[in-house]
Design goal:
Bound molecules: zinc ion
Shape: globular
CATH superfamily: Metal-dependent hydrolases
Oligomer: single chain
Strand order of the largest sheet: 1-2-3-4-5-6-7-8
Structural class: alpha/beta
Radius of gyration: 17 Å
Largest sheet: 8 strands, parallel
Distance between the termini: 19 Å
Helix content: 40-55%
CATH architecture: Alpha-Beta Barrel
C-alpha cells in the first residue's frame, strides 16, 4: 500500500478555506497518509495549524517565524508555548531569504538564531527556508551548534556538494514538486546524487504543484507525482520509495 508523508504543507492557507477537509481526505485516498502543516504567520495562523493537528491524528504541526515575517512583532514566550505543544514536531520554517528580501537581513538572522536556540532547548528539529542564502544559513547553523538537534532544508535548491555538507551537520533535505518541472534537469541530477536516506518529500502546498498540474493550486494528493519522479531517479518502485522516505520522516519528527 502506498504510504507517503507530506513533510511540509500550509493547510491553514486561505486557499484551502473552501474545501480544507476534502483536501485532507483526498490526500489520504491518494496514499499521502501523514502530513506536517507549517505554523507560521503569527499567533492565529500557528494556532490554526495546531488545531488541525489536534483534529486529525495523522497531521502534526510546526511552529515558527518565517524570514518574510521577521519584521512583524512576535511574542517569543508565546512561540515557546506553541513549540512545546505535544502535536508540534518541529520549529520553523525559519532561515534566510535573500531572494525576496522582504525583511531586513539582520532581523531575519536574529529570528533565525532565536529559533535555532529554541529548537535546541525543546529538542525538536528545525525546518529551514533558504533562498539564495545557503552559505549564511549553514554558517549560522554551525555557529549555533544545530547539529545537536538536526533539521531539514525544505524546497532544496542547492547542489549535491551542499547537501553533503548538510549531511555532516545532521541535516536532511526535502524535495517539492518543482523537481518534476521540465526544465529542472539540474535539480534532478542533484537529487539523484544525494543519498536517499537524506531525502524527504513535501508539497509546500498551496504552492509548487508538480507536473502535470504545474501552476494550479497544489494539495498533498498531488505529491504522488513528485514521489513518482523521485522513485524513477532512484530506480525504485513508487511503493518502495514511499516506505523509505516515510520511515525517514517518522524518525526525523520523532514519531517512532
Ligand atoms: Zn519556505
Ligand atoms: Zn513553506
Amino acid at each position: 500500500m502506498l504510504d507517503l508523508f507530506d513533510t511540509h504543507t500550509h493547510l491553514d492557507a486561505d486557499d484551502f478555506d473552501a474545501d480544507r477537509d476534502l483536501v485532507i481526505s483526498r490526500a489520504r485516498q491518494a496514499g499521502v497518509r501523514r502530513l506536517v502543516t507549517i505554523g507560521i504567520g503569527g499567533s492565529a495562523a500557528t494556532r490554526a495549524a495546531i488545531a488541525l493537528a489536534e483534529k486529525y491524528d495523522f497531521i502534526w504541526a510546526s511552529a515558527g517565524v518565517h524570514p518574510h515575517d521577521a519584521k512583524v512583532p512576535v511574542d517569543l514566550t508565546e512561540l515557546r508555548q506553541f513549540a512545546a505543544h505535544p502535536r508540534v514536531v518541529a520549529i520553523g520554517e525559519t532561515g534566510l531569504d535573500y531572494f525576496r528580501d522582504w525583511a531586513p537581513k539582520d532581523l531575519q538572522e536574529q529570528w533565525f538564531r532565536a529559533q535555532v536556540k529554541l529548537a535546541l532547548e525543546i529538542k525538536k528539529p528545525i525546518i529551514i527556508h533558504s533562498r539564495e542564502a545557503g552559505q549564511d544559513c549553514l554558517r549560522i547553523l554551525e555557529e549555533e551548534g544545530a547539529s545537536a538537534i538536526g533539521g531539514v532544508f525544505h524546497c532544496f535548491s542547492e547542489d549535491a556538494a551542499f547537501a553533503a555538507k548538510l549531511r555532516e551537520i545532521n541535516f536532511l533535505i526535502s524535495v517539492p514538486g518543482s523537481v518534476t518541472f521540465k526544465k529542472a534537469e539540474a535539480l534532478r541530477a542533484t537529487i539523484k546524487a544525494v543519498p536517499l536516506e537524506q531525502i524527504m518529500l513535501e508539497t509546500d502546498a498551496p504552492y509548487l504543484a508538480p507536473e502535470p498540474n504545474r501552476g494550479q493550486r497544489c494539495e498533498s494528493a498531488l505529491m504522488v507525482d513528485t514521489a513518482r519522479c523521485l522513485a524513477a531517479l532512484k530506480g525504485l518502485s513508487l511503493e518502495e520509495l514511499g516506505t523509505i522516505t516515510t520511515a525517514t520522516a517518522m524518525k526525523f519528527f520523532k514519531l517512532i
